[in-house]
């Protein structure tokens, strides 16, 4: 969630490759490999104090991307894509679309665009917030940092980190504080969240629901519209390094409680903060399988190939900083590399 946006130079080069038709040539290359791209989105919104710009994309750009996918790619449900990968029966230019966290804009903005183009997607939701059991702490913290006074923000930085950097942006402060929570477990994590709650007194309590997360009714609407609901753990914890029993409970509780309200299986998982190698360890992968999931996705870049480990699937992240050219380039990254080597 905190990956730096690509440089302007890299973005310009990628856009040039797209505009010159080089990436289209890569898309037309024959390939003996059975591969697919799983795209990873978070928020589809023009603005918002509940999410970092590094995980957001405007509705206009999202619609442009979906229109492009509908014209040039075969977009499968995650179930169908993984089934075809196992059977080695995947057409060229195969894609699956996924979303992480469970933001309300997924249902209100992204879903109508997907429906307009007849494209399926999987929505990995953090179960406690969407079931009304408390705030989504990541969005809560981003809003707290974005809306706090300078004095409040300084006090919070000193209390949590022991110092304050006058050159740090609010996004920098959010990243620092979020990393503190991500790297905590058990009582330490709970105590740090409680401390944040006291340091930002203008914010609602962390045990109250958020106005920017989906509800059960939204999830049911998505399912009725042909979308898939997956799990993103119960409380958006980094699983690696946790005690195995705690990991298992995070996974099982999320899966079972979502299945209960949806009256449908929840077969797929996405690991929180899965872009960091250390955040997805073999213990978490094994426990995801034991919890009854069919697959689990990371946030690491790459394409999915036949025979790939189903509990360590790469996904290509998409945000506004990519632009349209970067998005198209990312879809064909693997084959473009083959073109350059040929």
Automatic annotation (TrEMBL):
<dbReference type="InterPro" id="IPR011330">
    <property type="entry name" value="Glyco_hydro/deAcase_b/a-brl"/>
</dbReference>
<dbReference type="GO" id="GO:0005975">
    <property type="term" value="P:carbohydrate metabolic process"/>
</dbReference>
<feature type="domain" description="NodB homology">
    <location>
        <begin position="93"/>
        <end position="342"/>
    </location>
</feature>
<comment type="similarity">
    <text>Belongs to the polysaccharide deacetylase family.</text>
</comment>
<protein>
    <recommendedName>
        <fullName>Chitooligosaccharide deacetylase</fullName>
    </recommendedName>
</protein>
<keyword id="KW-0732">Signal</keyword>
<dbReference type="GO" id="GO:0005576">
    <property type="term" value="C:extracellular region"/>
</dbReference>
<dbReference type="InterPro" id="IPR002509">
    <property type="entry name" value="NODB_dom"/>
</dbReference>
<comment type="function">
    <text>Is involved in generating a small heat-stable compound (Nod), an acylated oligomer of N-acetylglucosamine, that stimulates mitosis in various plant protoplasts.</text>
</comment>
<dbReference type="Pfam" id="PF01522">
    <property type="entry name" value="Polysacc_deac_1"/>
</dbReference>
<dbReference type="GO" id="GO:0016810">
    <property type="term" value="F:hydrolase activity, acting on carbon-nitrogen (but not peptide) bonds"/>
</dbReference>
<dbReference type="InterPro" id="IPR051398">
    <property type="entry name" value="Polysacch_Deacetylase"/>
</dbReference>
